[in-house]
Amino acid sequence: MPVVTRPMTEATARDLFPGALEMMILESLRRQPAHGYALVQHIQQRSNNLLQVEEGSLYPALQRLLKAKLVKAEWGVSSTNRRVRTYQITASGLRHLEQQISSFGRMFEGIALVLNPGKSPAS
Amino acid sequence: MDWIPNFFRRRKLYDDLSEEMRLHIEERAEQLMGGGMSRKEAERHARMAFGNRAVLEEHSREVWQWPRLESIWADVRIAARNLRRSPGFTIAAVVTLALAIGANAVVFGVLNALILRPLNVPDAQSLYTVERGDYKEQATSYPDYLDLRDRNRSFDGLTAYILTQVSLDTGKNPSEVWGYEVTGNYFDAMKIQPYLGRFFHVADEHGPNSAPYLVLTYAYWHSHFQDDRGVVGRVVHVNKHPYTVLGVTPPEFRGTLLFFYPDFFVPMVNREDGPSFLSNRGQRNIFMVLGHVKAGVTPAQAIADLNSIGAYLEKSYPKDDAYMTYSLARPSLIGDMLGPAVKRFMTGLMLLAGLILLAACANLGSLFAARAADRSREVALRLALGSTRRRILRAVFTEAMLISLVGGVLGLLGSVVLLRQLSAWQPIPKYPMHVPLYPDANVYLVALFLALASGFLFGAVPVRQILRTNPYEVVKGGSTGIIAGNTGHRITLRDILVVVQIAICAVLVTSSLVAVRGLARSMHANFGFQPENAMLVDTTLGMAGYSGDRVPAMQRRMIDTVQTIPGVKTVGFVSEIPLGGGGSTADVFTEQTTDLRTSNAAANVQVFKISPEYFHAAGTSLLAGRGLSWQDDGNSPRVAIVNAQFARRIFGSVDNALGKYYKAEDGASVQVVGVAEDGKYSQLTEKPRPAMFLPFLQSPTGMTTLVVRSERDPQQLATAIRNKLRGMDDGLPMFIQTWTQGLDIALFPSRVATVALGVLGLMGAMLSLTGIFGMAAYAVSKRLRELGIRMALGAKRNQVLRAALGRSLRLLAIGSAAGLLLGILASRVLAFIVYTATPRDPLVLGGVVLAMLLLGLLATWIPAQRALSIDPMMLLRED
Predict the structure, then answer these.
(1) Of B130, B471, B534, B779, which cross-links B380 as Cys (Cβ 3.0–4.6 Å)?
(2) pLDDT above 80 (res A76)
(3) Which residues pair with B811 in a beta bridge?
(4) Are residues B368 and B405 in the same domain?
């Protein structure tokens, strides 16, 4: 069943886990710089369409990353000759991503243990 | 902390963001078109996939904003835009609030200046005046004062002063000025340093006439000596005696009374009656004794200390000193003489002003509720489009706050102007009365707080309405589902608000009518004299250098001279006019009393020293016996005319008193030869008091007021009198006014009360007018269609009116009845201030009912016209 990440509203949580979208964006950008549209495509493809990101919800997250100086942006022209604003991960963005991944990893591990008692997380 | 560069980059950031989003949707659409979709279809899908762009863009922008301040600023801008779109509503709301806040700021400004703000002397918090006995008397004799000063262990210097008017000759024209006669330690005890020159001290005094020194106040020095620093050491003449100017007080020091600005200070040891004043324990001429309570001593301890001195005085001087128990009070309003009355009145006024503000809030609250109801579609749409209720509430509150702040600032500005004008006003020209009401930070803060609090109050009214809005219902139903209850018979919050508001207004209208009526009646009350067609000529012969036997001779010549002016009917002479702001009293004893100590006195009575024609001139009628004659002089037996109250009190009845004797303070037997009607002597609200009228040839006095009865034009007559008297002695200071003007001081409190209440009542009436109008207009406009159908079905005019306005008028009736009842209860308080103020007056009751009816009629007139002019066809044809 696809998990729908919704735009942040006061009524609902920002996304599945706070910071999950940012983490996915950073991870995508680590592989290669991209503009917003490409990022959405990438995340949806990589998740086998399990994560149907509402496309626009990417932008508040990108602004937060920009403000925290974890990414930087530049206007340019894409391979398909479109005017695009390309995002690139910064050094502090990389550090941040490492930390996040390890802490999320531990959290997932913990959740998995609770949800599947008796099974070894390694299996 | 990179918000400063962010702030300047923000425009670019936002533009980039919009552009990026637009490109994103474009790219998606193009891709979908590549898959074979039509452009329109593709664009629609692209937008849907993107989500709510406006909300997302807002959230993206929020990332860059200073979270609170900026979104508040954005809200304020939106609110301002919204308000600009409905100027009628905005102006009505702002004006209502400006008036209400202004009224509160003015009343608080006065309260603050009169009661809360301490006198402008160092350590005013520990400064107290010493009052004596159950009647809280300030008056003290000099020997008693000395005992208090020297025997107490609780005060940092106890000082005393007397208010005095003198003729001051600085080398040019002598002019009458007011000042203080003070004890030598006055400036030291008040901890005041000279602005120029030096002050006198205890060491400068060595008995009667030993200290002919004078200290000027800054204001007098500034206006009369043009800041001439060479004034120190100059000799001036006070009542023709030479005095040396020692120095000038600092500008901010205006004596130790709040509302009476002296021009100079002289030592009281130099009084003209010095020898007897300084030694006579029964001569209570000192106006006030005051001083700072020592640090670490509580007022209760100081009182105990004073009382032990009082007990000593009673024991040591039984003839003069009785009831020597003491209490302390604030000196600024002459202690308990004015303080409690002013405090009570101002508190009452503050309450009423608070009610005005509440009524205004109720008014604005129902306006806001109506506005919210009218905008329920907009609210529902915004909710449906993803806005949150909190956000919408924030917008409503921002509007309320904006209105309250603008209204508050306007009201405050108005009140500052008014307070400044009141400060410059001199209500009673004869005295140097100033009421310094200049607003300070307290006033600004209170006004701001009230504005914000009321904004919050009326902004909160539509909250429930918005929280209950169901967007689907409203959008689906196409009509405003939320206020349906208003046309039914359920009692809504708005109904309650309107009733409360009308009740408050009725209270205000009632109390102002009670006050106005009371004042009108006190103008025509029987004072025991006829102020119409009478002029008063005040002179103080002492100022012109008269003393001893020359005084009565001069007084008699003045009477005879003024009598020769054409058109003058009678000229009488009296030491002090009744209700003139002054007055002196004396103890009297029954004929049998031999031990003439104060505690044995039969009564303490008002004393007037008069010429034989005084009763004629004043229009006071004699109830029994004879009047006084020129034969009642120093060579004939002592006689007096007493008033009816005196006769009843001492002798049982008027008839009984004639020919009987009583004893004066000096032990002499005085025969009662006549009985005069009762009158009002020091206050309009006083109970009947005993009074005696003594022939001035037997009891000389330097204080001289001529009462001139004539039907001539006062202006001309005043000139004629002045010329005649100047012809006798061109150095004679005098003050001429009509007796009606002379009553200003007695009527001052009730006039102030009436004006204040009248203004508040008027504001209350205006508020209820707009309140009822708002409600009725709203009720009609909401039910236009229903009324149209009724008319189409054949309803009569009065049936339509009843349907349209019945509810409003019912609420008006309930509110008025409640308000009238409350108003009657509140008016009891008024009776203390305004003479003959009583709410149990058919004219007042009728007036209130009539006023509220008129208000109701006036307010519902336009809505009624609107209801009657409905064209059913037109309404039914619409959609």
Answers:
(1) B471
(2) yes
(3) none
(4) yes
User: Per the CB < 8 Å rule, is A63 touching B20?
Assistant: no
CA distance to partner chain A, nearest, from residue B20 (Å): 7
Question: What mean pLDDT is predicted for residues B567-579?
Answer: 88
Model confidence at A110: pLDDT above 60 = yes
DSSP B149-195: HHH-SSEEEEEEEEEEEEEEESSSS-EEEEEEEE-TTHHHHTTPPPS
Closest partner CB to B23 (pick from A60, A66, A84): A84
- Cβ–Cβ gap B17/A59 under 8 Å: yes
Within-domain flag for A43: yes
Nearest to B52 among A7, A82, A84 (CB): A7
- Under the banding of pLDDT at 50, 70 and 90, the label for residue B831 is low
Task: For residue B542, give both structure tokens.
Answer: 């002492």
Provide the domain count of chain B: 5
Which residue of chain A is at minimal alpha-carbon distance from B9?
A67
Instruction: Say yes or no to pLDDT of B39 above 80.
Output: yes
Mutate which of B13, B18, B20, B389 to test chain A, going by most A C-beta atoms within 10 A?
B20
Q: Is residue A121 part of a domain?
A: no
Is residue A58, in this structure, part of any structural domain at all? Answer: yes
Mean pLDDT of the B607-626 span: 89
Q: What is the mean pLDDT of residues B371-382?
A: 78
Which pLDDT score is estimated for B67? 61
Instruction: Indicate whether A123 belongs to any domain.
Output: no
> What pLDDT does residue B169 have?
84
Task: Considering only residues A12 and B156, tell me which one the structure prediction assigns the higher pLDDT.
Answer: B156
- CB-closest option in B23, B50, B56 to A83: B23
Least confident of B49-58, B261-270, B776-785, B849-858: B776-785
A7: CATH: 1.10.10.10
Look up tokens 């002597």; give the residue.
B681
Q: Tell me, yes or no, whether B697 and B651 share the same domain.
A: yes
Mean pLDDT of all residues in A69-98 = 89
Chain A residue with Cα closest to B62: A60
Domain that holds residue B18: 3-65
- Into how many domains does chain A fold? 1
Residue B337 within any structural domain of the chain: no
Helices (H), chain A: 20-31, 36-46, 58-67, 91-115
Burial of B840 (0-12, 13-18, 19+ CB in 10 A): exposed
Q: Same structural domain for residues B393 and B257?
A: no
Closest CA to B676 of B626, B609, B637, B632: B626
B684 & B795 share domain: no
Residue B732 shares a structural domain with residue B778: no
B336 within domain boundaries: no
- The pLDDT of B95-117, averaged and rounded, is 88
| Whether residue B598 sits in one domain with residue B686 | yes
Is the pLDDT at B667 greater than 90? The verdict is no
Using the 3D structure, point to which of B742, B777, B800 is the last residue of a domain: B742
Q: Are B56 and A7 in contact (CB < 8 Å)?
A: yes
Which residues of B698-755 form beta strands (DSSP E)? 703-710, 734-738
Cross-chain residue pair B55–A63, CB shorter than 8 Å: no
Considering CB atoms only, which of A7, A73, A84 is closest to B55?
Answer: A7
The reply to whether B155 and B298 lie within a common domain is yes
B486 band by pLDDT with thresholds 50, 70 and 90:
very low
Which two tokens mark B748? 């001052």
Q: Are B649 and B643 in contact (CB under 8 A)?
A: no
Q: Kindly provide the ipTM of the predicted complex, given to two decimals.
A: 0.81
DSSP string of B366-391, one letter each residue:
HHHHHHHHHTHHHHHHHHHTT--HHH
Boundary of a domain, candidates B29, B45, B65: B65
- Looking at the complex, does the CB of residue B460 fall below 8 Å from at least one CB of chain A? no
Q: Are B537 and B705 in contact (CB under 8 A)?
A: yes
Q: Enter the DSSP assignment of B286.
A: B
Question: Does residue B394 or residue A25 have the better pLDDT?
Answer: A25
When mean pLDDT is compared over A71-80, B75-84, B244-253, the highest value belongs to: B244-253
Choose among B370, B49, B221: nearest CA to A52: B49
Same domain? B41 vs B98: no
Flag whether pLDDT at A8 surpasses 70. Answer: no
